[in-house]
Amino acid sequence: MLALSGLSLALALALLPAPGDALKEGECEVCLGFLGKFYKSLQDNDVKFNSADIEKALVKTCRDVKGKENRFCYYIGATADAATKIINEVSKPLSYHAPVEKICEKLQKKDSQICELKYDKQLDLTTVDLKKLKVKDLKKILEEWDESCKGCAEKSDFIRKITELMPKYAPAAAKARTEL
């Protein structure tokens, strides 16, 4: 009888969530952000909440994302070139409306790289001095806009191109710069 109660106590303790399982502040930034937006888009587009439809929508969404979100899609297997396929670890819990935080916790256990992804710091183009930025950062701005600077050899060429395209991609920043 005593052995049976000890066994039940051990089983109960095993089923309790460990204190280290919860996500820490700032952890899984890309996972939480991407899946949060994705879940909202599923609701807005009246997608049926079954695993197969969610998986199709996820693959479709992942075709269009860039940067860290594309890397996240690669890690879960939602891109064509992905080596692993744990997309069902996202689609199945979403089909029964599991919180995004819990999905990211489970993904972290499967692949810790998923929660190491962080969004790049966004530059405020209204106040930043383009001349003080590195060429790498100037190229990143153009890349975010899906633009390239063919024939750019010097930093001033990149700055000129960004200033030229700013009204198209960042009109508020362009307006603020002309008022200075």
Automatic annotation (TrEMBL):
Domain ARMET N-terminal: 27-123
Subcellular localization(s) per the UniProt record: Secreted
Keywords: Disulfide bond, Secreted, Signal
Signal peptide: 1-22
Predominant cellular place of this UniProt entry's protein: secreted
Residue stretches making up the ARMET C-terminal domain: 127-169
A GO CC term assigned to this protein in UniProt: endoplasmic reticulum
Classification via InterPro entries: ARMET-like, ARMET_C, ARMET_N, SAP_dom_sf
Keyword NADP applies: no
UniProt key word Thylakoid: no
GO biological process: dopaminergic neuron differentiation; neuron projection development
Pfam families reported in the protein's UniProt record: ARMET_C, ARMET_N
Family of this protein: Belongs to the ARMET family.
Protein name: Mesencephalic astrocyte-derived neurotrophic factor
Naturally occurring in which organism (per UniProt): Pleuronectes platessa
